[in-house]
Amino acid sequence: MPISYLHAMIRTNKPEESHLFYTKGLGLIQTRRKDSEKGHFTLIYYAAEEGAPEVELTHNWGDQDYTNGDQFGHLAFEVNNIYHACEQLQSIGVTILRPPRDGRMAFIKDPNNISIELLQKGDTLEPIEPWLSMENIGSW
């Protein structure tokens, strides 16, 4: 199962201060940004250079404080075929918490309870069974 490390996600309630830290302090570049009016959040990505693994800062709009326990979000990996990757993980006893019903994304947890996002490389795959009808099994 070829896999590529993509990013680690950290939640922040201080996006401006965080931006200065990652750009001016660490010298990373902002690679992309997405504001979601519907979801009330902003995603900001930083990397040492274009194409390198990223740090994803997630700012959920509103006055939310985070502790060290809920500030870290997840690790993300890109896979060549999300359905095959999930099948392989299931075959060794890993529970798929958020199945890849959309052909694009799934969530699992490692034995240490760390959330891991799996993302389909390239174009989204056509939804197929049994993934299409699977319910979320847990929370991530």
Describe this structure in words.
The protein has 140 residues and is an alpha+beta fold. The protein has two domains: 7-72, 2,3-Dihydroxybiphenyl 1,2-Dioxygenase, domain 1; 80-133, Signal recognition particle alu RNA binding heterodimer, srp9/1 (2-Layer Sandwich). Helices cover 18% and strands 38% of the residues. The chain contains three helices and eight strands. An eight-stranded mixed beta sheet has the order 2-3-4-1-5-8-7-6. The chain is globular.
Brief write-up:
This protein has helices at 15-25, 68-71, 82-91; strands at residues 3-11, 29-36, 41-47, 54-60, 72-79, 96-98, 105-109, 115-120.
Biggest β-sheet strands, sense, barrel: 8 strands, mixed
* The CATH superfamily title of the largest domain: 2,3-Dihydroxybiphenyl 1,2-Dioxygenase, domain 1
Structural class: alpha+beta
Just name the CATH architecture of the largest domain. Answer: Roll
- Average pLDDT level: 89
Q: Classify the helix fraction into a percent range.
A: 10-25%
How many domains?
Answer: 2
**CATH fold-level label of the largest domain:** 2,3-Dihydroxybiphenyl 1,2-Dioxygenase, domain 1
Strand content: 35-45%
**Cα separation of the termini:** 23 Å
Low-confidence stretches: none
Strand segment tally: 8
Principal-axes shape call = globular
CATH secondary-structure class of the largest domain: Alpha Beta
